[in-house]
Amino acid sequence: MDMLTIKNFSKTYKGGKKAVDNLNIQVEAGDIYGFIGHNGAGKSTTIKVVVGVLDFDEGEIFIDGHSVKSEAIACKTVTAYIPDNPDIYDFLTGIQYLNFVADIFGIDQKTREDRIQKYADMFEITPALGDLVSSYSHGMKQKVAIISALLHEPKLLVLDEPFVGLDPKAALDLKNVMKELCANGSAIFFSTHVLEVAQKLCNKIAIIKEGQLVASGNMEDLVKNQSLEDVFMEVVEDEK
Amino acid sequence: MKSNLATLMKLEMTKRFGFNTVSHEKDSKKKYRAIAMIFVMAFVVIVMGGYCFGISYGFGYMGISYVVPGYALTISSLVVLMFTFLKTNGVLFASKDYDMLMALPMKTETVITAKFLSMYLNNLAFTAVVMIPMAVGYGFWNEITVLAVISWTLGIIFAPLLPMTIAAIVGAVIAGIGSGFRNSAFAQLILTVLLIVAIFAGSFWMNDQAAKDEAAFLALLANLGTMISGILHKIYPLSAWFDRAVGHENLLALLGLIAVSVIIYGVFAFVCGKCYRRINSALKSHHAASNYKMGELKSSSLLMALAKKEAKRFFSSSLYMMNIGMGLVLALLLAVVSIFTGIDKIIDGINITGIDAIRPLVAGLMPFGIAMIVNMCNTCAVSLSLEGNNLWIMQSLPITMKTLLKGKMLFNVIMVLPVSLVCSIIFMLELHVNVMMALIYIVFAVVSVLFSTVWGTWSNVKFPNYQWQNEVEVIKQGASSMLGIFGSIVIYLALGAAAFFLSRYVAIELAVLGCCAILGLVGTMLYRGCK
User: Fold this and answer.
1) pTM for the model
2) Ranges assigned E (strand) in chain A
3) Are strands A212-218 and A58-63 parallel, antiparallel or unpaired?
4) Segment (H or E) for B520
């Protein structure tokens, strides 16, 4: 079952620069899909369009069968997004922010308490939840953003460079959570520059260069006996 | 040092005036908005300059042009004081780029000098807009000597230093003390309010002392110019020196003015330079108890959750509370004062020509006055822009733009409507209005709050600014803030004037109801336009 379908998607910024050109990607339930490319290749633009932060004119994007263009709320209800820079509300405490997100998703009291407890303990941030977010480090903000993304058990989890700023244990916990979510039928679409992580974690990848898809498919088929790093460099060099 | 300072100044100016938006922005909408802002600012400068010239010329016409130099210096100093106060925290201290700048291989003094110069140039612009037109007006009635020109020029250059220093010291002390509390914004607000109350109490005491000498007061009244000079010299003693420097070509007074400004500023800059890291560390430190234990969490409906979030945003920032919430405090104060003094005395206190002509209509026009003051509190005029870097949260959550705006509007209504109703009830009782008029008071209170809420929202939807570095840019200097808050004042003034005019032909009740209908109609149209 397709959880995310990107069809002939192009995005041109005002001023004429084409950030993404005719992109086609399919993410199915159970997939951990890695999205790889140089800085400025169009990864974050694609991710922001998928989660509804940016709009677009060309192509179609569907999440769980709903159009991002015409059924934005239905899409967002089943999606969660963690940006590369987790700027969450500085004026709230961690627990107030999580409770706020739970209110928006209409999660009942017992469920939200259980899930916050579970993930806050896992990421070892429970004692700090009563402090203002303004006092948090980058990694702590990232952890709160991750917990907020998991509260409604999303069918599609979209992450932009999720491992930046996380301590090694939190990074490992996040990988485990990602695997657990996929085992339960959700899908994950994330960008990363850490190719070793992508190779170990993902079952599918897409490589994007200057806005165009240069390779995509099952990890095993693409990598074969090589490392993902070698494949990435080959593909990128070939396209020059 | 010099080249580093030049580089930092270039950066500060680029940031402050948005040059890059005008020259490099590819989004034509943003670019045109920035250009439009330049025209709006130019218009404000022309209006303000014209007003200052008018006052100066008017004084000359009345034969008291000798008060102009002191008046110009006092007014420009008050403007600088007002604009710098509470702005130091975030611009001079605890700025967002502090970490980045302090890590660069340049002296701390260079960083401070760049911050000071940036603030100074900003304030110099304000001073020039006030003082140059006044100097021109002064020139129409007085001989233009070389020393007078030099005095005016040096006066303009040095005028911002002292008020800027005072505002910076007070702002930093308040922010510093406030940062020691868990809710630092609230602590800062209370300290600021206490300071303002102390200043007012002091000025009342001074007036009281002056009033006791009634004979002297009457003698002063006989000579308006001397009276104005006397008041100005009392408010701002340096204005006496400037009067002497320009009017009597007193070089010593001019040098004294410059010396006092430079010495006080210099001492502050020196001390500040020595303690810059310590002050910033204190301001940037946070309370973090880190002892939270999971307990029961209360859930809220979607709209209430959004409104609660807005409330927390509002009460987390002293700048936000002071600037946007002041209308409510002012309205409540007026209402409470009216209970003790009686409405007639308040009207007597409003020193506007022609107030007697509308005295019989006061009861009918009072709702416009209440609406004008109460609705100066308009969180919706800035709250969308204040999402800033956090905008992605709302964009990625499953809520529509309309729902987000409704949450913002709900908070504004919850905060403003009760005050509007309380003030309306107090004034309707004070003015002994009939039942029909009493109902109109209530209806107008509700409609005006709803209208202003929508008006503020519309202003912010049309003129958003998410790329701010400091919330001052949105709250004090933003186009939507100006349009939402001052536009609202102009609308109620215009409607009040229209009701006044209409009352010649129809009953005042009908005129007010007609205005109510207009507000409702326009409000509905604006609400539909909030997309």
Assistant:
1) 0.78
2) 2-12, 18-28, 32-37, 58-63, 66-67, 79-82, 156-160, 187-191, 204-209, 212-218
3) unpaired
4) helix B508-529
Inspect the interface and report whether the beta carbons of B27 and A15 lie closer than 8 Å. yes
> A residues 43-72 near B, CB within 8 Å?
48, 51-53, 72
* Residue keyed to tokens 């590369």: A84
**CB-count exposure of residue B401 (10 Å: 0-12, 13-18, 19+):** middle
Give me the tens of pLDDT residue by residue for chain A, a chain 240 residues long: 889 999 999 998 877 778 899 999 999 999 999 999 999 889 999 999 999 999 998 999 999 999 999 999 999 999 999 999 889 999 999 999 999 999 999 999 999 999 999 999 999 999 999 999 988 999 999 999 999 999 999 999 999 999 988 999 999 999 999 999 999 999 999 999 889 989 999 999 999 998 999 999 999 888 888 888 888 888 877 655
| Token pair 């808050």: residue | B485
**Distance in angstroms (rounded) separating the CA atoms of residues A174 and A154:** 15
Residue-wise pLDDT tens digits, B61-110: 888 888 888 888 888 888 888 777 756 666 777 777 888 888 888 887 78
Give the N- to C-terminal CA distance of chain A in Å, as an integer: 35
A183 touches chain B (CB under 8 A): no
Is B212 at the interface with chain A, CB within 8 A?
no
A28 Cβ neighbours under 8 A, 6+ residues apart? A1, A2, A3, A187
What's the residue count for chain B? 531
Q: Are A51 and A4 contacting, i.e. CB atoms less than 8 angstroms apart?
A: no
Both ends of chain B: CA-CA distance in Å? 49
User: Does ipTM surpass 0.85 in this model?
Assistant: yes
- For tokens 């994950």, name the residue: A188
Nearest CA to B367 among B227, B514, B165? B514
Q: Are B426 and B342 in contact (CB under 8 A)?
A: no
Is there a contact between A130 and B292 if contact means CB atoms under 8 Å apart? yes
pLDDT tens digit sequence for B229-286: 777 777 778 888 888 888 888 888 889 989 998 898 888 888 887 888 877 777 766 6
Distance from CA of A12 to the nearest CA of B (A): 11
Phi, psi of B28 (to 5 degrees): -60, -30
Classify residue A39 as exposed, middle or buried by CB count within 10 Å of its CB (0-12, 13-18, 19+). exposed
Q: What are phi and psi of A206, to 5 degrees?
A: -135, 135
